[in-house]
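Narrative of activities, Objective 1.

The group set out to show that a structural description can be obtained from nothing but a protein's sequence at a throughput compatible with the screening campaign. Below is one input-output pair from the validation batch, recorded exactly as produced.
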Amino acid sequence: MPAGRKSILTDGVIDKICEARSIGATYEIAAAYAKVSEPSLMGWIRIGEELQKRIEAGEEFIQTEHEANILIFLRKIAIAENMDDMNLLSVIDKAAAADPSWAEKRLRWKHRKDFNLPVSVEHSGEDGGPIVHEVIFTDGLSDGRQNRESDNSAPSGPNQSPQ
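Output recorded for this entry:
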């Protein structure tokens, strides 16, 4: 950030964004709640993630006060998002006490590899036989008769009498 320009990423903005994210608000809603633009919010997150990668790679660099503030923001937002996850899990736990299907859903979510149901689709007709299709063609007449201009005396299909 250029010298002399004050960052809008203040403690108050960080707190508002984290408050919103802790209850599941989207980034768009969190930015609006903190009265900052969504591109600014996403820019801070992007910069923070880039700084974090540099730190994890062991790169040595002099961190500015603004960069340090962004890294603190990134950690706080991660904590807020984890709080939202914990709140959702708490709701599921309470629901599972009343409805065991929620316990099963949570197990499938938490232990996907061990508890997910296999997906299989089988197509067959009655008693495992072939699927039978019946196709009926009509010309739109309400009683289903075919329109036969050339022979009005012959039946035009099953259960139909001559015209």
